[in-house]
Amino acid sequence: MAKLKHNRFLDTVDEVFTYAKNLKILHLNAEGSSFDGRHMRVNGKKLKHFGTTGYLGLEQDQRLKDAAIEAIQNYGTQFPLSKSYISHPLYAELENLLDQIYERPVVISKNATIAHMAAIPVLVEDRDAILLDHQVHWSVQDAAKRLKLRGVKIELVRHNRLDLLEKKIQEISSKVNHIWYMADGVYSMYGDYSPVEHLMKLSKKYKQLHLYFDDVHGMSWKGKMGRGFVYDQLFPLSKKVVVIGTLSKTFGANGSFIVCGDIEKQQKIKTFGGPLTFSAQLDPASVGAAIAAAKIHLSTDIIQLQNKLQKKISLFKELIKQYQLPLVDENDSPVFFLATGVPETGYQLTKALMKEGFYVNMGLFPAVPSKNTGLRITLSNHNHATDIKSLAKSLKELYPVIMNQTGNTYDKLNRAFQKKIKIEKSEKKNLKFSIQTFSSIQEIDKNLWDTHFLGEALLNWEGFKFLEKSFTGNKLPENNWEFWYIKVFNSQKELIALAAFTLSIWKDDLLAKTQVSELIEQQRKTNPYQFTSKVLSLGSLFTDGLPLKVLDQENQAEIFHFLLDQLDLIMEEKGIEQIVLRDFEVSNAYQKVFQSQGYIPIQMPDLCIINELAWKSEEEYLQRLSKKSRKHFKKDIEAYQTLVTIEIVSNVNQVQLEILYQLYQNVKEKNLDLNTFLYPKKVFEQMNISRAWEFILLYPKEKIKGSSDPIGVMFCYKGNKPSYVPSLVGLNYEFNLQYQTYRQLLYESIKRAGSLDYEDVDFGISASFEKRKLGAQVLPQIAYIQAKNNFKLDYIESQIQ
């Protein structure tokens, strides 16, 4: 089978960011000839700045500015020489000051990303393993993933789940030398903390466990001498602990540093930590500013700055509580994440705040799950008490208005974040639309359904009846589907929308690259349902096409909002992990609605269709092909036709059916590009008794010794015209090249469709290259996915080398 075109994660992120950029809340440019830290000018408007990571405000401290200017005057704008050979004169002073703060030597790097790239390859040995907290910073994950080339085992662990961490330690401890758990001290989105003390207890319990912390967001505003959230709790540092700190963000300058409990390992990093050796050293201005900042950290001034910030934090916390704003995590960090749930609420609230004169960040996918978006508000010593009070007041006034405008509710937020963020006082019911759900197509009038779906392959009434019979009453849970048929009515009780969904178990690596599925399939040998999810899908894994009709085009956006709300309720009630709205054209009228409600666009495999077949003769068909395709036909199909015999049958005996099922299994087991569960035999038994199905069988003319069985089969659905559907293929791979079985079956399907006067051949997905050569039009498809969390998606992505 030919390969599929897989979705690229970066394309998905680009779609989300582009949407936000078009709303002018992302990738903005600050304006003006000066900057004071308290205000920011964007698009000509002066805004109060609540998006900084310079929490203490040191980047505007005159002592740091003067030191940076003096350093440039004395040493120039840069010192263009590798630090491995020689560092400029200010470096020694900075290292000495940092040694005093941390009471041990440190290694300075240009930034935290370079620090991770320098430290991790030196610390982690080839027979070690790395366990990454799911929300650890991207720079840590990126540096760690590079070690896969050395054979280092790397896995994600759900955020702050020490029970799962301990279970994973026990699972892999006998296979590796050391286990490195990597986490942030303070997480940059929700502002929540790593359970440092509990992690140290685990480290003492398991001798193999080493801890690696990125504490750049915990620096300066926390800890004795501003040593940070992590270091202050772990002092004196164990030999099994490494902390990465920063000279930028709250420290006020530029750069980063590495502190190791094991001095020998620290020396190795300093001697030859890749980027430390080959990249430029910090410029004199950055080092000069860092020296001035370090002196502040060593003075009582740092305590005053920390206390000043904590008063602002306490004030904002008090106002949040008073105004009942939906805060996700309550602690004493300067990072506040206010839940908005669906992105559209976050987008509009961010824009509304900018209009009111406030700049805040929005936390969105992939930093947070798509339905867990929110406002990321950060405080600094630049913010005045009056600024904080006016922001809180604006939030109090804007939240209910924007929530209502975007069709959001606090009940939705509670479901999305799995906590009681706020109790809904009085949720207004949508009186404009109503819904009916059915569990079987037989509960719906056949004429009504076929009025809208007749001729759309397996999406007609009989097609869904076939699916219900095939995917119920089976032994394995993955082969038992629930069916949801939905009718939407307006206030006059008129039908305005129809849709069909299935609820089933999907493999999370369904569209992953083959090598990723191969790794996960190894795990499934002992745990068959490893990395699988309950998915509510528009349509089903057996069909292609869109079983969705909106009959009221004027109100389609409102109808979709209503329908998505209903799906959200079903998701909660049934414990569903993902909703997949699939088989849409890449450019479609619903895209804005889906993305605004937290559905992430994913590129699907292309759909292959031959339209307007108008079959009269083989010669006429060939003339419609390109010159190159005709050449392919003669070389790879026509040249083999004399070697085979074709038989078309509506049913076979049980022995033959077993053979055909085995041919299907051959293809399924070989093709991990579209990694679904094996269809149950019942599917093929239903085909065998249905008038709507037939089998195109291919035999070699010269009988194979000891066998008269077919070496290929195409399972074809011949429902209502205009579409003929070669749905599944089965092959004996031993003879595929010898007889070009797969290509022959593709052509015989086209030939059969023409002889039955079908206008179209719906080849479905996969093998688009082969189908294109036979005249198929390749149609890009897109799906929209909403997941309860990003963990599984990120895990799959982390397995790609």
From TrEMBL:
The keyword Magnesium does not apply. Signal peptide: none annotated. One of its GO terms (molecular function) is transferase activity. InterPro entries: Acyl_CoA_acyltransferase, Aminotransferase_I/II_large, AON_synthase_class-II, PyrdxlP-dep_Trfase, PyrdxlP-dep_Trfase_major, PyrdxlP-dep_Trfase_small. Keywords: Transferase. Its cofactor is pyridoxal 5'-phosphate. It comes from the Bacteria. Residues 54-386 form the Aminotransferase class I/classII large domain. It holds the Pfam family Aminotran_1_2. This is 7-keto-8-aminopelargonate synthetase. It comes from Mesonia phycicola.
